[in-house]
Amino acid sequence: MGEISDTGSTVAPVTPGLLGWMRDLNGKERSTFGAAVGGWALDAMDVQIYSFVIPTLISVWGISRGQAGLVGTAALVTSALGGWLAGWLSDRIGRVRVLQVSILWFAVFTLLSGLAQTYPQLFAARALMGLGFGGEWAAGSVLLGETIRASHRGKALGFMQAGWALGWGAAALIYAVIYSFLPQELAWRVLFFVGVTPAVLVFFLRRLVSEPDVYLENKAKAGGPAKGQFLEIFKPPLLKVTLLGGLFGTGAQGGYNAVTTWLPTFLRTERHLSVLDSSGYLAVLIAGSFFGYVTGGYLSDRLGRRVTFLVFAICAAIVVATYTSVPFGNTTMLVLGFPLGFFGAGVFSGMGAFYTEQFPTRVRGVGQGFSYNIGRAIGAFFPAMVGFLSGRMGLGLAIGVFAFSAYSLMAIAAFMLPETKGKALTE
Questions:
Q1: pTM value?
Q2: Is residue 17 part of a domain?
Q3: Is residue 198 packed enough to be buried (19+ CB in 10 Å), middle (13-18) or exposed (0-12)?
Q4: Is residue 133 within 8 Å of residue 43, measured between CB atoms?
Q5: CATH no. for residue 139?
Q6: Is residue 122 within 8 Å of 106, Cβ to Cβ?
Q7: What is the pLDDT of residue 9?
Q8: Residue 220: inside a domain
Q9: Is 229 inside any structural domain?
Q10: Helix, strand, coil proportions of the chain in percent (round to 5)?
Q11: DSSP assignment of 283-333, as one string?
C-alpha cells in the first residue's frame, strides 16, 4: 500500500535504506528540497563570515569585544524582524517570491559589509543584512515543510538545517585560504565580498521551484491570499503554541549564538591557536554539527519531535559547559568539538517541522516566522552579553554560563510542547 499524502493523494511506498526517502521524493519535492538546503547553506556562509573576522576587526580597528558582539547582536535582532515580516508576506504573496527577495537582500548587504570604512557603517550593513537572513529561514522552512509529505518532513527539514553546517564549513575553508595568502587588513574585506554568491540561487528558484499545493489550495478556497489575521497567533488556541515556540527558540538560538559567535575568538585568544590550527578545531565542530542536524531530523520522524528536543537540549547543555570550563589538553578539546557541534546543532533539526505542523495554512508563515524569530531576537543578546562579561569572568566561562542557561531553558520548553509527529497539513 502507498502512503497517503497531506493532500489525500496516494504516493509511492517508502524505499528502504538510510537515504531511501530521498529517492521517494517526486520532482517538486526534490527541487524544493535542493533550493531550501542550498539557500540555508549560503545564508549560513554569509552569517558565519563575521565570526571569523572579529579578531581582525578588534586588531585593525581597535574595537572592544563588547562592540564586536553588538554587531553580531544587531544582525540577529533585525533578523527576527525580517523573519516575522517575511513570514507574514509569505502568507500574502507566496513562499517562493519572499524567499527570492530574502536571498538577494542578505547577499547585497554582506557585500556592503566588506566595503565599510568605519564601525558605524559596518554596524548598519550587518543590521540590514539581518533582515534578509531572518526572512530566508522563515520563507524557506515553510516552503519545504508544506511541500514534503508528513512521513519525511522531519528528515527533510533536518537536512535543510544541515545546510547551515555546510555553509559554516565553506566560510571556515574560505577564511583559512584567504587569510593564508592576504594580509588581514585586506583579507576580511575579501571574505565579505565572497558573500555575494548566494544571489545566483535566485535564478534556480525562479525556474524550478513552485508554491506548495496546500498553500495554493488554501488560497483558491479563500478566493485570494490567506485570510488569517496578523494577530491571530496571539489568540487561543494558538497563543500557547506561539509562546512555547518562542521560549523554545530563545533557548536553542541563545545557546547556539553564544557558542558559534565567540568560538573562533576563544580558540585564538584563550587557547592560543593559530588561524590554521583553529580551523582544524572548527572543522571537527562543523562535522559534528552536520551529523547532529541529520541525526536530529531522523530521530524527530522516528521518536517524535518532543523527545528529540529534550534529549539534544540536555546533552548540549552538559557538553558546552564542559568544553568551555574544564582545562583539557588540545587533543581532548579537538575530540570534544564533535559532540559540541552534534548536540548544539541537533536541537534545531525538528524545529521547522514542529512549527509547520502547529499552525494552520492561513497563518503558518506569520506563526512560524514569529515563534522562531522572537527566540532569535532574545537569543541575539547572548553574544553581546558574553562579550561584555568576558572581561570579568573570562571568555570561556562566559560562553559556558550563557549557553548552559539557554539550553536548560530550551529543555523546559520542549518538555511542555505537544507532539506533532506525522501530522497532515490540512485546515
A1: 0.79
A2: no
A3: buried
A4: yes
A5: 1.20.1250.20
A6: no
A7: 42
A8: no
A9: no
A10: 80, 0, 20
A11: HHHHHHHHHHHHHHHHHHHHT-HHHHHHHHHHHHHHHHHHHHHS---HHHH
By DSSP bridging, strand 10-11 and strand 3-4 are antiparallel
pLDDT (0 to 100) of residue 190? 94
List the one residue out of 217, 197, 231, 399 whose CA is nearest residue 317.
399
Which structural domain range is residue 183 located in? 26-209+236-416
The number of folded domains in the chain is 1
CA distances from 14 to 95, 211, 222, 382 (A): 27, 24, 34, 42
Cα dist from 213 to 9, 216, 240, whole Å: 12, 5, 28
Is 214 among the domain residues? no
Half-sphere exposure of 153 (CA within 13 A, CB side): 29
Q: What pLDDT does 224 receive?
A: 60
Low pLDDT (below 70) residues in the chain = 1-17, 222-230, 271-279, 426-427
Q: What is the pLDDT of residue 370?
A: 85
Report residue 71 as a C-alpha cell: 554587531
pLDDT tens per residue across span 181-237: 999 999 999 999 988 887 777 777 777 888 898 888 887 886 665 555 667 888 888
**Residue 71: helix, strand or coil by DSSP?**
helix
CB 420 within 8 Å of CB 244? no
DSSP state string for 24-61: H--HHHHHHHHHHHHHHHHHHHHHHHHHHHHHHHHHHH
pLDDT of residue 2: 44
